[in-house]
Amino acid sequence: MPAPSSTEPRLTEPRLTEPRLTEPRTDETFSDIWDEIIWRGHVHVSTDADELKALLAGPPIAYYCGFDPTAPSLHLGNLVQLLLMRRLQLAGHRPFALVGGSTGLIGDPKPSAERTLNAHDTVAEWVGYLQHQVSRFLSFEGENAARLVNNLDWTAPLSAIDFLREIGKHYRVGAMLKKDAVAARLNSEAGISYTEFSYQILQGFDFLELYRQHGCVLQTGGSDQWGNLTSGTDLIHKAEGASVHAIGTPLVTNSDGTKFGKSEGNAVWLDAAMTSPYAMYQFWLNTHDDDVIDRLKVFTFLSRDEIEQYADKVAREPFRREAQRRLAIEVTGLVHGAAAVAAAMDATAALFGGGDLHALDAATLESVVAELPLAEVRADETVVHALVATGLCGSLSEARRAIAQGGVALNNVKVERDDATVEGHELAGGVAVLRRGKKTLAGLRLVRDTPGMRA
């Protein structure tokens, strides 16, 4: 199998034209923003819906959402909140994005076990990371410019005695025990510590402080946080005699109904170093037909008319997967930018024989092979052995038959002989892509010494 010619062009930029992404906008076909967020599926539970509709249709309000630095990156569940915040801002309201320097030191109760507490320095570092991520999704200009806040600013100066006297007195233990997160832990073998039991008080205190300092009258969050959201509404009612509101958004779930989040070990992160743009693009590209229209509503700024057109395409020609491609382009572009989308599209095309793998840069190729079964092989190893090392074939004899039948390609070049080696076929970064059949792929990392194979 001949190696690519040394005169073959090597492209450093994506070969595809950068896609045109939809600008964040409100949909003027709706009578007001409440009707739009209801149609898009942003509201799973809320305080009084009629009052919220009137509130959001009136003069600009201040509202907030909190993000705890329990990891160095936000994930898709947080993106739901960020997009809801942006939609409300586009409707004229003013967002406050709270990154919890104090609540991040505690962590809200997980359903089954106590959280491991992170060091103060770690949490402070993660606060900076999350603030940077949040800033990419909101506008910090104009009359309703967004503002970043950190709850450590008002909790750190407060003594434990003052906290118990001024805030704790408004809480009744019986009501706290009924919160879903607390009740689940009380019924588990792990139980719950006083530290995590008190989390709902801290979150309620956040809402109270933002109400007092900035007039915030609405908090948004995931529906699994409903007990913590209402902790704030109840506290403000008791401490200030005022009525404020909360919106709980639906949880992002897998097709089997399980929660899709970092606690499940399968998070899609917003940090490119933790989930590459290519991996994110592939995630959305693989959305099930039954879910894709709902995902377009929640995760994109496409209009109602555009989304209904895609719904018709899914019903009539699901095999074209046009809705999935648009979803992948829009969300990956929203998170990582148009250039990253172009690179991901280029890699996808090249991976399945529709483009040149040699045109991809090392970083893009690294993200590609990271999503494939991967094995390390010596550069002088045969393709037959590489097929077995990657698990594409179960034995050497099966690998030889696959080559003889014309079903094996290395970097999209058909392997003709069973004594062919991978020597001289390194792509950028010292990797290669092995394919059996049309769609079964694996990655190779070429080494010059004894390999340590890994699936």
Short structural summary:
The chain has 455 residues and is α/β, with parallel strands linked by helices.
Major β-sheet strand ordering: 1-6-5-2-3-4
Percent of residues in helical segments?
40-55%
Low-confidence segments, given as residue ranges, are 1-16, 451-455
CATH architecture of the largest domain: 3-Layer(aba) Sandwich
* Biggest sheet descriptor: 6 strands, mixed
Per DSSP, the total helix count is 19
What pattern of helices and strands is seen along the backbone?
A: HEHEHEHEHHHHHHEHEHHHHHHEHHEEEE
Counted up, domains total: 3
Structural class call reads: alpha/beta
Describe this entry's structure for a reader.
By secondary structure, the protein is α/β, with parallel strands linked by helices. Helix content is 42%, strand content 12%. It has 3 domains: 42-249, 3-Layer(aba) Sandwich (Rossmann fold); 277-357, Tyrosyl-Transfer RNA Synthetase (Orthogonal Bundle); 372-447, RNA-binding S4 domain (Structural Genomics Hypothetical 15.5 Kd Protein In mrcA-pckA Intergenic Region, Chain A, Roll). It contains 19 helices and 11 strands. α12 (277-285) crosses α16 (338-351) and α18 (383-390) crosses α19. The longest helix has 16 residues, at 120-135. Residues 1-16 and 451-455 have low confidence and may be disordered.
